[in-house]
Specification:
2 domains; 8 helices; 341 residues; alpha+beta; 60% helix; four-stranded antiparallel sheet; 8 strands
Length: 341
Amino acid sequence: MSLLKGYPRSLRIKLLCILFLGMVATVSVSFWVQLENTKERIQEDEQKSMQLLSSVLYSILEQTMAKGKVDEVSNALSVIATSPSITGVEILDRDMTARFSAEDNRPASKISIFTMPVRPRPICRKCHGNADPIGYLRIGFDTTTYEKRFFREVSINLGTSVAVLLTLTILVYICLQKGVFSRLQKINVAMQYFGKGNLKYRITVKGEDEISRMARAFNEMARNIYKINYRLYKVSEFSTIINKCISEEEIFNSTVEFIRKYFDVNGVAVTLNEPEERIVASRGETEGFLYIEPVLLKKKEIGSIKVAASRDFTMEELSAIKIVASSLSMALERVWSVGYG
């Protein structure tokens, strides 16, 4: 539970964590591949160098031994052992018993032993016969240089990988900040303003991606809500306006003008049943979809409001028209009661 509580709730941090972990995994795999390639390349270079040095030493000792002088062989081994890359040289007989050896007491952190068979030359067969091989040449190589080279290249690769990781992280963060987070922040700010009652707040939209479509959807929603609230506010004012009218004609005309002004309609008409239906006021065309809202007076239908439009009305618009019809009924009742009195 403590881990869940500590888990970041910010979408920005979550996305950055996921992307960072993905880049760490990618760079780690790349570094591991480079590490293996470096290791194989250095080992291959090391083997080639050892083989080349062994061949050279074999030729030197072969020439020395062919003269049959033991002292010269011993001296040659001692000189060879002083080479920076060699820590020791031994000549073994067929039973792997050391016959001659020379070692360098230099400290070496890592030593590799390379052994190669010594085969008799034609001039040596008088003494050694046709035995194959007649002995072995064992050479100790100081591989500290190769080890240092390996760690140096590993350090360079590691530094390069870390630099690439940090660069990618910064670039991805900049791209996300500019292309995603800052735009989401604008939408968040717009929602906060909208929630506080600023229904006119809009988002500046550029582009055609998902965030742009989200911003456009917010602007459309904001416009519709503002339009609904504005219409409801005007409907609430309509009862005050119509109650100031002093004649039937003024009431009918005010009703028609109000609906025509604040509703997206093609035309509107007010009719009375006396006893046949008669249009007492109208504006615009009456063709197309026709919505009829009855006008009641003491629960008796005395007429109707007819609205023509090329679309269906929303529930909010229907409710607003019902309120207008109710206000019309109350205004007519007031005027007629005064006239009758």
